[in-house]
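Exercise 7.
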Amino acid sequence: MTGTNRKVGGRQEAVLKQMKGLGLRRQSRSYATNLHDIDSMSQLTCASDAPFEDTTEFGESTALPEVDVGEYSDASYSDEPSESTDSPSSSSSPDSPRYAFQSPKGLSQEDFEFLQAHGLEKCTPLKELGQGGYGSVDLVQVSLPSGRNFVAARKVIHSPLYAQPRYERELRGLQLCADCPFVVDIFASRITSDGQFEFLLEYAPNGTLHDMLKAMEQRRRGKEKLLMPVNRIQYYAACMLKGLQFIHQRGQAHRDVKPGNVLMAANGRPLLADTDAMDSVQVTKRAGTTSYQAPELWRATLQGPGYTTDKADMYAMGITLAEMAAYPAGGNGKLQQLKDDPAGCTPAYVPPELKDLLCGLLAPVAKRLSAEQAMAHKFFEGLDWEVLSEGPLGISVQLRQAPSFEMAAATAAGRAE
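Solution. The predicted structure, written as C-alpha cells, is:
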C-alpha cells in the first residue's frame, strides 16, 4: 500500500511519535514512512545505497595550509597507532590538539568557551536523531552560564573502522569550512576514555537530501515529471556548488558527495556534511560511496599529470543533481543508464538547460565542469549568489524548525521525570 494508506510500524512509528511530541511542522507521516534503517535522519557517514569505501593510504601527505589549528601539526598519517590514541582527548583538553572552533552567532565569549570546553560532557540528550553501523546522532541541549539552553546534534562514532586518523581528517575538514555557510558547523569534539569519537555539530532539523528525495519519489507516484520544481533544484544545486567551490579553492576535495551527506538546515539551506573523507586534491585514491565515484577513480594511477580529485567531486555532484531531477538512488536502474549516457538517457521532461548542466558534470574528466564553470552555467542565469545562505529564494517549502530553547528545556524536564 502506498501514500497515506501505507501503514507504519516499529521504528517508523516511534519516530512519528517523537516528531509529533516535539511539535514538528512537517508532514510527519509521509516522512516517517520513508525512513531507512541505515541512513535516515542521521548525520553519519553511513551510505544511502552502498557502503563507504576509503582506500586512501594514510602515508600520503594531507596538508591543510590555510587552517588555523594552533599547536596542531599536520604530520603524514601512519598505520602505527599514535601516542595520543591511548588517552582521551577533547577539543579543550590541554593534552590534545588545539582547534579554533567557530562561535555560533549570538553567543557571548563566556558561553562559547563553556560550549567548547564542556559542551559534550555536560549536554542533556533530548531524542535520538539517527543510528547506523558507525554510531549514532542525538539531539542534545547544553545549559550555558548565561542561562541560555543551546540545542545541537551530538555525533558519536564507535565503529572500529573509524580510527583516529579518520577522526582527525573529519575534524580538520570541518575546521577548514568553519566560515562556509554551506557546510555544517562544528562547536566541539573529543575522544572519550572508552575510545568513542564525539562531535558537537549544528543541528539540521530537516533530515538529509536523501530522505527528502525518497519522500518526493513516493509522492510523484511514477509520473513522468521532475521530482521537484526547477527553482528548487536550482537553489539546492547552487548551495552545494558554493560549498564545493569553497572546499576546492583551499586545495581540498570532499570525496563523498551524495544526497545522504547533505543536511537540510532549519531555513531550508543544504549543508555539506561528513568530511571524514576530505583530503588534498592531490590524493587520487578511491574514497567515498562506490555508486557516486567517478569512473577515473577506478584507474587513478593512469591519470596524467595535473589530475586532481576535485573533478571526482563534480562527477558525484552530477549524480546528485540527476537524483534531484529524475531518479533517486535505489530505483529501477534508470539512474545508472543516465550516468552511462546522460545525453541519450536524460528524461524528456528535464529542461534543456538542466540537461546540459548534467551532461557537463557527468562528462569525461577532461571535459567535466569545475565548480566555477558549473556556477556560470546558463541553468543558474539570474540567480543571486550573494543571498543563498538566507534560505530558499521564493520557494514554498514546508520546513521543520529546531526546537526552541523553552521547548528543549521542557522536553528534558519531562524525560527526567
